[in-house]
């Protein structure tokens, strides 16, 4: 998808390097993508080592993690409650609910399924710890500390696990029933159980601080005048109600739900009243049905980090945020429905039929929802069918169309996005990129400059502006913009490469060589950088070093006729005709119209014939 998959995998040079000491260090020290989740990065690196860029392998890994998490969830509730069938239905709902398609089908959302697996592993180990405490067995704290380790691993996969200590307290209340178990007061029990959670709470606080810093530095926290505290507070009850509605009626799901900013007071009042009413019902029936408290508060508490009090991104809600919170509502369904119908005759048949129907409906809707994740165009056309005034959907649909070469259609989508919200810099940057491809350089420069007034620190926009200026012949402007791009993002290899091209074309070989060296230092697998460095070194008389870079470029991109031809030419120049003939033939096999390769091959074969 053109929706974070590039940032997380496809265009991430650290992930592309696979699992190395350098990438390992990067994973634990970076705040890339405005998050600190080293285990998530490591999982992507392992996939890169095993599957390369074959998408099916990355999806398979996410699916396996989700299946494992589902099995662990079943084990949690079966061991804690002894209710095998109810636990099975709960886990099945979690496993196939349409709201969870986003977390599993979207490669960039690997952090959901990975952190979910560690969440349920930690909860399982905690249950084992509690059981051993009750039986007065030896070494119960081994399971306690193993649970804590899994919790930390979960935090290193996704910081949303910060609410886990509070969920442990809910589990202590029900189904573990640890409050007032020894005949002491409830307050005394609560204090004792809270002290037990101190290591977990400290881990959650540390993770929260690291995440806050990472997101602040990464620009993910939306600090805009339009997202004032009153607006965030107003969105909170409405978001809770929207999530509830989607759990019970999971249709018209979208990859992105725009934040409307303003909600009518009537809707805010209605949503708040509904939440208060549900909470009052839970309190009223809690003594008789203790699972209501655990289920309802699980839902409310685990959603708190993403409910919008701290606005991260510009979405109002997101399907992926329900991956863990929805379990609370599933608890209420799976334990509440049997309790309600138990007063009627034939209740077991009724409950069984209801459960089967519910799972079949979920499975059918999930199958349908998976289809929307076929590719970027399908995904964002569906998002627009759900809500037409969706700036990000128009933008990403435009990017998908641009990638396929449908430039006129892409411009229409960018125009629509800008018409909806003229303050989104990415829309101007994307339209500017299309205009460069169409050769409409003045219009492209205007768009890029407009976008940079909104987001002046966007390195890729400076790169595009530099490229447009270069094509227009304004070399000083091009150099300035490309240097700005390289300064803002030293890992942007294209900026170094393009600066090298300008310097080389103007006879400045030393600066050109330096830029090419910086490009391949950032990404040793950058074929263009090796090829261009080889050309510059050859022009500078450094033939011996140039040959190794031509060879590396041809190795990295064996399907490039140009690289093969360049390599062959320097082999010929260094009196290695047999090797040169092999490369010239390979170049012609890739491109029969490569005149340089045909002439070189003819020259070498003619020379060999004369020598014989």
- Helix count equals 31
C-alpha termini separation: 57 Å
Count of beta strands: 0
Shape: elongated
Average pLDDT for all residues: 92
Instruction: Report the sheet with the most strands, covering strand number, pairing sense and barrel closure.
Output: none
Structural class: mainly alpha
What level of helicity do the residues show? over 70%
Catalogue the unreliable spans: none
Residues in β-strands, percent: under 5%
Q: Over all CA atoms, what is the radius of gyration? A: 29 Å
Describe the structure.
The chain is an all-alpha fold and 612 residues long. Among the domains are: 369 residues, no CATH class; 55 residues, Tetratricopeptide repeat domain (Serine Threonine Protein Phosphatase 5, Tetratricopeptide repeat), CATH 1.25.40. It has 31 helices and no strands. α6 runs parallel beside α17, α13 crosses α14 and α29 runs antiparallel to α30. It starts with a helix and ends with a helix.
Features:
Serine Threonine Protein Phosphatase 5, Tetratricopeptide repeat, 73% helix, 0% strand, single chain, 612 residues, 31 helices, mainly alpha
Quick recap of the structure?
This protein has helices at residues 5-10, 13-16, 21-29, 38-51, 55-81, 84-96, 101-105, 110-134, 141-155, 164-173, 186-196, 198-218, 229-248, 265-285, 291-303, 326-341, 347-371, 376-386, 391-403, 407-420, 425-437, 441-454, 459-472, 475-488, 493-505, 509-522, 527-539, 543-556, 561-573, 577-590, 595-611. The chain has 612 residues and is mainly α. The model has no long low-confidence stretch (mean pLDDT 92).
């Amino acid at each position: 998808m053109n929706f974070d998959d590039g940032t997380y995998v496809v265009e991430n040079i650290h992930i592309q390097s696979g699992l190395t000491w350098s990438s390992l260090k990067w994973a634990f020290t970076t705040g890339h993508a405005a998050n600190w989740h080293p285990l998530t990065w490591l999982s992507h690196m392992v996939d890169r080592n095993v599957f390369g860029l074959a998408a099916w392998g990355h999806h398979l890994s996410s699916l396996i993690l989700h299946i494992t998490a589902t099995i662990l969830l079943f084990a949690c509730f079966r061991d804690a409650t002894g209710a095998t069938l109810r636990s099975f239905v709960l886990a099945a709902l979690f496993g196939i609910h349409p709201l969870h398609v986003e977390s599993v089908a979207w490669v960039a959302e690997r952090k959901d399924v990975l952190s979910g697996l560690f969440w349920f592993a930690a909860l399982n180990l905690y249950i084992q710890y509690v059981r051993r405490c009750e039986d007065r067995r030896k070494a119960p704290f081994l399971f306690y500390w193993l649970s804590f380790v899994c919790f930390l691993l979960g935090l290193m996969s996704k910081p949303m696990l910060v609410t886990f200590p509070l969920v442990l307290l809910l589990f202590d209340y029900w189904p573990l029933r640890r409050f007032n178990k020894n005949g002491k007061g409830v307050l005394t029990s609560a204090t004792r159980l809270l002290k037990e959670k101190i290591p977990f709470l400290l881990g959650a606080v540390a993770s929260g601080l690291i995440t806050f810093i990472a997101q602040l530095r990464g620009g993910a926290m939306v600090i805009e005048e339009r997202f004032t505290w009153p607006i965030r507070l107003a969105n909170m009850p409405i978001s809770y109600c929207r999530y509830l509605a989607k759990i019970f009626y999971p249709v018209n799901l979208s990859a992105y739900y725009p934040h409307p900013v303003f909600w009518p007071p009537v809707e805010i009042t209605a949503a708040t009243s509904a939440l208060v009413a549900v909470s009052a019902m839970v309190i009223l029936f809690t003594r008789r049905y203790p699972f209501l408290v655990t289920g309802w508060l699980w839902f409310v508490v685990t959603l708190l980090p993403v409910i919008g009090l701290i606005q991260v991104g510009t979405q109002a809600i997101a399907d992926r945020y329900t991956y863990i919170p929805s379990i609370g509502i599933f608890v209420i369904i799976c334990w509440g429905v049997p309790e309600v119908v138990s007063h009627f005759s034939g209740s077991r048949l009724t409950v069984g039929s209801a459960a089967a129907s519910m799972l079949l409906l979920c499975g059918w809707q999930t199958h349908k929802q998976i289809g929307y994740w076929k590719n970027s165009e399908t995904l964002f056309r569906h998002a627009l069918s759900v809500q037409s005034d969706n700036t990000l959907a128009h933008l990403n649909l435009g990017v998908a169309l641009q990638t396929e070469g449908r430039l006129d259609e892409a411009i229409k989508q960018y125009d629509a996005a800008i018409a909806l919200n003229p303050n989104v810099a990415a829309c101007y940057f994307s339209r500017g990129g299309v205009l460069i491809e169409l050769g409409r350089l003045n219009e492209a420069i205007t768009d890029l400059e407009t976008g940079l007034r909104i987001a002046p620190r966007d390195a890729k926009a400076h790169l595009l502006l530099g490229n447009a200026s270069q094509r227009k012949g304004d070399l000083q402007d091009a150099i300035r913009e490309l240097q700005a791009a390289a300064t803002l993002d030293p890992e942007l290899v294209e900026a170094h490469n393009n600066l090298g091209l300008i310097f080389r074309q103007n006879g400045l070989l030393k600066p050109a060589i330096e830029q090419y060296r910086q490009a391949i230092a950032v990404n040793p697998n950058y074929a263009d950088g090796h090829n261009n460095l080889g050309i510059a070194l050859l022009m500078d008389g450094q033939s011996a070093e140039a040959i190794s870079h031509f060879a590396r470029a041809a190795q990295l991109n064996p399907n490039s006729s140009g690289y093969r031809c360049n390599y062959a030419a320097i082999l010929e120049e260094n009196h290695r005709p047999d090797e040169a003939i092999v490369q010239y033939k390979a170049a012609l096999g890739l491109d029969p119209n490569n005149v340089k390769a045909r002439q070189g091959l003819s020259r070498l074969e003619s020379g060999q014939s004369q020598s014989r």
